[in-house]
Amino acid sequence: IVFHTATISAFALLVIALFGMAYDHLRSIAAPHAEASLKKIVAVTLEPFGEIARTIGGNDIEVVPLIVSLHDGVRGPGDDLHLDTDLLKRADLVLYGGPLIEPDVEKKIHGMTGVTANIVNVSTGARLLERVPSEQAVTGTSSADPAFWLDADNATILVQNIQHAIASTDAQVERRSMEYQVALRAADLAARQAMSGCRLQTMIEGGGPHFAYLAKRYHLNYFAMPANDSSAMRAYAQIVRDQQIPYLFYDQSAGAQSANAIANITDAGTRSLDARIRFFSGESTVSAPHLSDLLMQNARTLAQGLECLHDSP
Question: pTM for this one?
Answer without folding.
Answer: 0.80
